[in-house]
Specification:
2 domains, 4-stranded antiparallel β-sheet, Rossmann fold, alpha/beta, 41% helix, 13 strands, elongated
């Protein structure tokens, strides 16, 4: 018999550990649902599960691939691995980054929505950028409940704001109101929606590297952008929200892709600055050697090259110093 334990999925990023600690401390020990949590963390071993376990009313442990979901337990995504739901079991996979993260929130929300539909409560907490937004929309589309932390009180409001922008969440709540809403929604009956989950399940195959987007004509058209993670082509999602995925599965929302492109630009500008400074230094050295040999005309030509390089380097240095993360100028 299939395991149909209701699920609660929680996504958090910047400022999320403190918010999670508070939320888990307020959930009742008899909660009739499994709780799965993704926090954006560094890809190294950590003691986050034990830290949260000390504050939680429910036992918290790091998720293990293949373990069965049990009610009244909290499963925390492992560092550098996505956390997925496969019917009544957990999958822990080191698939492609999504939204610049591994673990990412969207893969958890998608897979849980496909597995549980209306028996799912998804929660978006504080965080930067837009991970969790597309996943929240899928949860709603398949009949699940979506709760979003009030952006006005979130330490970092971008994730809640993006989840609200692309979805119509059931409730937007202060952190203190989310635990009671979870309990209420877990036991609240809701008619499952008949929305097809095939495309959603296919996206889980991309995360587990069991499929490739290039073989799926339904995913839209090739976008005129390269994947910032691997340099391959990006496909644009046919969904309402603007999303992109490459051949091997790296995925981005519009905010995440813009940030990655912005960081690419920083790297390119830094490389250009280094090359110009090296060019200026080399030209100066050559000019000095030529001048020592009495070849003033040739030395002057290298002086000009060096001066031009210094001028261009100054322009790039000013761009790097005054450019905002979104690519605009920080000057008025």
């Amino acid at each position: 018999m299939a395991n149909r334990t209701p699920l609660v999925t929680i996504g958090a990023s910047a400022g999320g550990i403190e918010a999670l600690g508070h939320l888990l401390s307020e959930l009742p020990p008899e909660l009739p649902a499994s709780v799965l949590v993704v926090v954006h963390i560094a890809p190294v071993a950590n003691r986050l599960a034990s830290v949260l376990d000390r504050r939680s009313a429910l036992p918290v442990g790091q998720a293990v691939d293949g373990e069965e979901l049990e009610p009244g337990r909290v499963y925390l995504a492992a560092p550098d691995h996505h956390l997925l739901v496969d019917d009544g079991h957990i999958r822990v996979v080191r698939g492609p980054h999504e939204n610049g993260h591994r673990p990412a929130i969207d893969p958890l929300f998608r897979s849980a929505a496909a597995a549980r539909r209306s028996s799912l409560v998804a929660v978006v907490l504080t965080g930067s950028l837009d991970d969790g937004a597309a996943g929240s929309a899928i949860v709603s589309r398949l009949g699940g409940h979506v709760l979003v932390q009030d952006p006005d009180e979130a330490a970092h409001p971008s994730m809640p704001l993006n989840a609200i922008a692309v979805d119509d969440p059931d409730e937007i709540l202060p952190l203190s109101g989310i635990p009671a809403a979870i309990v209420r929604r877990v036991v609240e009956p809701r008619e499952p929606r008949a929305a097809a989950a095939e495309q959603i399940e296919r996206q889980t195959d991309f995360v587990t590297l069991e499929d490739t987007i290039a073989d799926d004509p339904r995913f839209g058209v090739v976008a005129p952008f390269a994947c910032p993670s691997c340099g391959g082509s990006l496909w644009e999602s046919p969904d309402d929200e603007l999303r992109f995925r490459c051949r091997i599965g790296h995925a981005f929302g519009s905010d995440g892709l813009l940030l990655e492109k912005s960081e690419q630009l920083d790297r390119a500008l830094a490389e250009g600055l280094r090359a110009l400074e090296e060019r200026a230094d080399l030209s100066t050295r050559v000019a000095e050697r030529l001048r020592d040999r009495g070849l003033e005309r040739r030395a002057s030509r290298y002086d000009e090259i060096g001066q031009e390089s210094v001028r261009h380097a100054l322009v790039i240095r000013n761009v790097l110093l005054h450019r905002n993360v979104d690519g605009g100028s920080s000057e008025n």
